[in-house]
Amino acid sequence: MARLAQELDEVIQQVEERQTELIQLVERLVRFETPSPPARNTAEAQRFIAEFLQEKGFQIDQWEVYPGDPNVVGVLKGQAPEMYKSLIINGHIDVAEVCADESWETGPFTPVVRDGVIIGRGVADMKGGLAGALFAIQLLDEAGIRLPGDLIFQSVIGEEVGEAGTLECCKRGYRADFAVVVDTSDLHLQGQGGVITGWITVKSQQTWHDATRRSMIHAGGKLFGASAIEKMMKILQGLQDLERHWAVMKSYPGCAPGANTINPAVIEGGRHAAFIADECRLWITVHFYPNETYEEVTKEIEEHIGRVAQSDPWLRDHPPLFKWGGSSMIEDRGEIFPSLEVDPEHPGVKALQASHELVLRRTAVTDVSATVTDGGWFGDAGIPAVIYGPGRLEHAHAVNEQISIGQLVDFTKVMLKFIYEWCRTER
Ligand SMILES: [Zn+2]
């Protein structure tokens, strides 16, 4: 055991000595142009990752989630998988979209290294995290270290547009004793609140000439009709009331007060100026706390808006319609990111914390991400998970997106240690 521990220390040492290779791996991943939208462009990058893992002894499962966007799952079978803990390492290969007019130093997909950082689209979110985890796996493999527990590496598609490649992995049956989502967390151990989008539609079965307006809004007109746009104002007001009520009454440690927002993001409605608007659709984004589910919060909204509608003579007869979530922001204009609560007492969380503290000699911070990641799908599937990755949120999605090489090296060392320790822990 002592020999093994010393052996591991030597491997961890190598991360620093061989950081040029690590940087080259990040650069290699950045050069695959995988922005989403437009998406459907990850096949080459995924093939690269599949081959990388295969060379290290992983069994590869690759399948198309959308044409041109395959998921890759590599499984490194442990030597005694029934007796030792298994681990999922998860990351998304797609990156945030880039616009033609952005002023990058050298172009988003032409990475540059200077002043201790790597610049390029996706380095922080999250090709840096993917590369660090892959490099840790490479070093373990080269050192001839065999793990008794299973190691599963998931490189998924679609995260940036809510396409939930990770949900597809869960549906396909991949489970483990613990999962680490190596997305942007500045090396904090994080849970997250959740997000669900929804459409609220106010609809009249009848259409009316705009000249009938007088009859439907004034005394003696006797026309029981309404503008769907004007009725949506009541719904909007109701949503604001509920949002404020939530902000006042709900809280979660580590989340900014009032982070549980209901954002009226997009509104569409009416036909043209010669009609009374017979339909109005509101697209909302609902943020909720880690200890809430999307089923609960959408039920609260429906009940509250249902009562708002009951208080209006026309809406009572024309109740608003709700359509929640969706499987893609670009295919069906909807998404879900379930919340993820991190149990600080879970052995996986404690082991990752310990690896962080032993390797970096710094206290590990456990808090809540200000954004959402695929981590929620593990929470939803009942797989204990944490978000832990290099890179800072302020750099994610930004022009000249960057990552600190020092932090990338730290992350790789911690992952090396953690993979080694966790997959060697008895069940
Ligand atoms: Zn991300």
From TrEMBL:
Broadest EC class assigned to this enzyme: hydrolase
Q: Which residues form a coiled coil?
A: 1-28
Transmembrane residue ranges:
none
What EC number(s) is this enzyme filed under? Answer: 3.5.1.16
Task: State the Gene Ontology terms under molecular function.
Answer: acetylornithine deacetylase activity
Highest taxon, organism lineage: Bacteria
* Pfam families in alphabetical order: M20_dimer, Peptidase_M20
| Keywords of this entry | Cobalt, Coiled coil, Hydrolase, Metal-binding, Zinc
Metal-binding in keyword set = yes
- UniProt record similarity statement: Belongs to the peptidase M20A family.
Q: What is this protein called?
A: Acetylornithine deacetylase
